[in-house]
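Supplementary Methods, section 5.1.

A reviewer requested that the exact input to the structure prediction be made available. We therefore reproduce it here, unchanged from the version used in the analyses.
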Amino acid sequence: MARCDEGYRCEVCGRDVERITDSDLYLRYILGEVSLDQLHRSLERHIACNPALAQWIADESFPSITLDGPFDRRLFPAEFRMEEVRRITEAWRRLQAIPTLGLSIVDYPIR
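The structure derived from this sequence is encoded cell-by-cell as follows.
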C-alpha cells in the first residue's frame, strides 16, 4: 500500500498524525529544516513525540515539555534559549494557523 493510502504514522508512537497542526514534519518545514522535496520522503512524528523540538514551544495552548539530558533547553545559554523559544513558538503558531490561511504549501515556511 502506498504511503498516501496509509496516512502519516508517527515513527515514535505508531499512531496516525491526523492533523497538520500536530505534525512535527510540517513544523520543521515551516522552520526551513525540511525542504519541500523532502516532505513526502521524511518520517513523521507528533510534535509532542519529538521533545527535543517541542520543549522550545512556549504557548499556553501547548503543554510544557521537559527534556532531560544533554539537549535539555535549560543547559543552553540564556540568549540562545530566548531566540529558540521565539523562533520555534512563532513557527508553531503559524502551523496552528495554516488550515485557515489559504496558503499554497510553498508559502508555509517562515521567510
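The chain is about 35% helix and 0% strand. These observations are discussed further in the main text.
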